[in-house]
């Protein structure tokens, strides 16, 4: 699983689906309604968007969307063509098998006793997570990196009392001079 | 004296005039009053309809008959939502229309104001593109973009939602000629390597079929396709919407294929070693069961919309581009194939499985349509509704000229035929235009009799009246043990009297012996619209038929003796 759907669940069944997770990058005109038009391409086929990141692009008036969704590659291929067909979508690229740098940030809030805290901090240190809030009975961790790394850390912390988990969803950029 | 700054509405109408708009089909209402006001002094003719759905179908028929975009103007809320069926119809069939909807003032958006509807939200799924105009300064740019997007590439409907304060407010923005749409490109010529590959396949084929779809009509590719067919000596079939691109009376033409296509067209498809689709999207009405669709054939797919490639079938060669340009580029590269045996085989099928209908047992729709075809000699524009009459018209009225056949193919919209014929008649005033409709669909938009009457249009409306929703009745008879449910149209009006109530000339055909005489009289009548009511036998079936979702081999050419399984296709 790449992202926010049910990130704490890392059963073998979920792992098997990993091969079908696609990361799609869109370069869009920042017009009202563009998000709805994009979302409708997925909802029409009954596909879930598993994560979605929208942010301003380097060029004024344009935005970036990074979407992860899983499903039949043939259907996703057709959906990407339907996304590219939208007037407000300048580019739609499936980066699933591309050489691209990917990253994601997660925030985790754990309820913990002082005894549990040291083990949590050990795990955090291993994943280069930073403690961004340190309370009497709680700790908030921030970690970034590949979605798989975030999956692994959240899985290890599942043995503790995870109060909240927020993930940004994956963003990526093509390496070298290739377009994202 | 300085001239007054135009309002947004006046600017909009000026933009429409610059686009060459002759007619606007519409119905007024509160939020659209400023736009209707601006029309008072315009050269554009306003055609006032009786229901907004009728306006959209008229604009659609106008566009299909002329190739120019049809324009609709309605008010907010229910006025706008009444256009949704028409938008779907145009969207499914790639018809260029621009629909302008009034909207409540921007300050009231999202606050449930009177006659407010989130029209862009409601219509996202049925438009090629849409705009909610928030600033009157955007009107010239948006109008230009709307027409550009609607008419180019794969055409389609574009909606402009115009709040009342934007149309009422001043607009001094200059007119716009050039569009800047980085996310929109229009394919022209296909990749030369793909063209060469396709040409090699075509030249090598022994049993080719050229499958002509609506894209060939839109691109006006007919002449090029005939050239290709004659050079290859290849038979041609067309989809329901491909009718007219290539003259259906051409010796190489096998008529329509698919669920109710001719047996010889379907047999040719099933046995072909190469099929080239030219602007058809391999709709489920023509492929039947996809897993068994033309397995032995090399498939070449010509389409301007790359999203159609690999959607239904996985073609061996995809040619992205304008249908006419692609076929023209193929022409010099192909060689005359060795198809004599193939053509002979098809001749046998044509002889063995002709289109036919019983000559006894009362008045038959097929008879009326067969005679209409003979009378009009393929020169009339024919606009059908949806159902049995539509399939019979497609079979028996052979279309010889491009843009002379219109029908709601993708959406299957009942109520389309008559208003679309009105729109076509406005666009082609010199042509003879016939609406061919059933009693069910006609009643959905019959209010437009008034529109035809007040403009003295010479449009002719042939109502095939069997007092049934006949196609559903046919399915219930064949697949549901004749358990009729929701198909009997009790309480139909006397359509002759109905037409007369609008001051419209009306004829009635009761007996086979009346057919020629009355069709000739209607054909000759030129003082205004006329209605011909053919009181046909109640229970009749369209054959040939490939049950929905079944392979070509399941085609039935007459009523089967044994009980049939329920169809597995979605509709």
What does this structure look like?
The complex is a heterodimer of chains A (180) and B (571). Chain A is an alpha+beta fold and 180 residues long. Chain A folds into 2 domains: 12-98, Alpha-Beta Plaits (2-Layer Sandwich); 101-172, 2-Layer Sandwich (Alpha-Beta Plaits). Chain A is 30% helix and 37% strand. Chain A contains 5 helices and 9 strands. Chain A has helices at 12-17, 34-44, 73-85, 114-126, 147-157, and strands spanning 21-29, 51-56, 62-70, 89-94, 100-111, 130-134, 138-145, 161-167, 171-174. In chain A, strands 5, 6, 7, 8 and 9 form a 5-stranded antiparallel β-sheet that branches. With 571 residues, chain B is α/β, with parallel strands linked by helices. Chain B has 3 domains: 8-168, 3-Layer(aba) Sandwich (Rossmann fold), CATH 3.40.50.970; 192-352, TPP-binding domain (Rossmann fold), CATH 3.40.50.1220; 365-543, Rossmann fold (3-Layer(aba) Sandwich). Helices cover 35% and strands 15% of the residues of chain B. Chain B has 23 helices and 18 strands. Chain B has a 6-stranded parallel β-sheet with strand order 2-1-3-4-6-5, sandwiched between helices. In chain B, helix 23 (515-524) links the parallel strand 17 (505-509) and strand 18 (530-535). The N and C termini of chain B lie far apart (65 Å). The mean pLDDT of chain B is 96. The interface between A and B is medium-sized, with 21 and 19 residues.
């Amino acid at each position: 699983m790449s992202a926010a759907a049910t990130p704490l669940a890392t059963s073998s069944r979920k792992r098997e689906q990993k091969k079908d997770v696609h990361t799609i990058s869109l370069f869009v005109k920042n017009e009202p309604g563009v998000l709805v038009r994009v979302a409708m391409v997925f909802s029409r086929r009954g596909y879930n968007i598993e994560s979605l990141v929208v942010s301003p692009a380097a060029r004024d008036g344009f935005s970036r969307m990074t979407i992860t969704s899983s499903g039949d590659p043939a259907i996703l291929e057709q959906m990407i063509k339907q996304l590219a067909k939208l007037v407000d979508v300048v580019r739609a690229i499936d980066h699933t098998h591309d050489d691209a740098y990917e990253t994601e940030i997660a925030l985790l809030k754990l309820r913990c006793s002082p005894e549990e805290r040291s083990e949590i901090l050990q795990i955090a240190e291993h994943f280069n997570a930073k403690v961004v809030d340190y309370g009497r009975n709680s700790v908030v961790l921030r970690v970034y990196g590949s979605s798989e790394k975030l999956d692994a850390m959240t899985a290890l912390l599942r043995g503790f009392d995870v109060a909240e988990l927020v993930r940004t969803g994956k963003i990526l950029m093509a390496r070298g001079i290739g377009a994202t | 004296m300085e001239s007054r700054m135009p309002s947004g509405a006046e600017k909009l109408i000026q933009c429409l005039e610059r686009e060459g708009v002759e007619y606007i089909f519409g119905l007024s209402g509160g939020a659209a009053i400023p736009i209707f006001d601006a029309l008072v002094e315009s050269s554009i003719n306003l055609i006032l309809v009786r229901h907004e759905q009728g306006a959209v179908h008229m604009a659609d028929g106008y566009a299909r008959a002329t190739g120019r975009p049809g324009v609709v103007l309605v008010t907010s809320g229910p006025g706008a939502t009444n256009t949704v069926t028409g938008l779907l119809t145009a969207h499914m069939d790639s018809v260029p229309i621009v629909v302008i909807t009034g909207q409540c003032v921007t300050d009231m958006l999202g606050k449930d104001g009177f006659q407010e509807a989130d029209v862009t939200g409601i219509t996202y799924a049925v438009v090629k593109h849409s705009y909610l105009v928030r600033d009157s300064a955007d009107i010239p740019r948006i109008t230009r973009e709307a027409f550009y997007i609607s008419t180019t590439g794969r055409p389609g409907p574009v909606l402009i939602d115009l709040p009342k304060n934007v149309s009422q407010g001043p607009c001094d923005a200059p007119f716009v000629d050039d569009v800047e749409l980085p996310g929109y490109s229009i394919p022209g010529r296909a990749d030369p390597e793909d063209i060469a590959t396709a040409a090699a396949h075509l030249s090598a084929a022994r049993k080719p079929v050229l499958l002509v779809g609506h894209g060939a009509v839109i691109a006006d590719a007919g002449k090029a396709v005939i050239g290709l067919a004659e050079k290859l000596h290849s038979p041609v079939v067309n989809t329901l919407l491909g009718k007219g691109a290539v003259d259906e009376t051409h010796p190489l033409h096998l008529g329509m294929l698919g669920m109710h296509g001719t047996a010889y067209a379907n047999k040719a498809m099933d046995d072909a070693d190469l099929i080239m689709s030219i602007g058809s999207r391999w709709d489920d009405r023509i492929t039947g069961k996809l897993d068994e669709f033309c397995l032995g054939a090399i498939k070449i797919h010509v389409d301007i919309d790359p999203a159609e490639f690999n959607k239904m079938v996985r073609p061996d060669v995809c040619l992205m581009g304008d249908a006419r340009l692609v076929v023209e580029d193929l022409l010099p590269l192909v060689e005359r194939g060795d198809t004599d045996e193939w053509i002979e085989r098809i001749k046998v099928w044509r002889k063995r499985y002709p289109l036919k209908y019983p000559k006894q047992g009362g008045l038959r729709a097929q008879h009326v349509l067969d005679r209409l075809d003979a009378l009009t000699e393929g020169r009339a524009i024919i606009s059908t509704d949806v159902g049995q009459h539509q399939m019979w018209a497609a079979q028996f009225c052979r279309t010889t000229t491009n843009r002379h056949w219109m029908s709601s193919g993708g959406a299957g919209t009942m109520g389309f035929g008559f208003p679309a014929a009105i729109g076509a008649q406005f666009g082609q005033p010199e042509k003879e235009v016939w609406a061919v409709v059933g009693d069910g669909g006609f009643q959905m938009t019959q209010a437009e009799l008034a529109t035809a009457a007040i403009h003295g249009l010479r449009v002719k409306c042939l109502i095939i009246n069997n007092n049934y929703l006949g196609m559903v009745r046919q399915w219930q008879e064949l697949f549901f043990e004749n358990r009729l449910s929701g198909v009997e149209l009790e309480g139909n009006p006397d359509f002759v009297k109905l037409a007369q109530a609008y001051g419209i000339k009306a004829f009635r055909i009761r007996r086979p012996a009346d057919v020629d005489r009355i069709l000739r009289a209607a054909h000759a009548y030129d003082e205004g619209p006329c209605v011909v009511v053919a009181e046909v036998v109640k229970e009749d079936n369209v054959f040939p038929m490939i049950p929905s979702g079944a392979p070509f081999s399941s085609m039935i050419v007459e009523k089967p003796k044994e009980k049939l399984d329920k169809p597995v296709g979605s509709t």
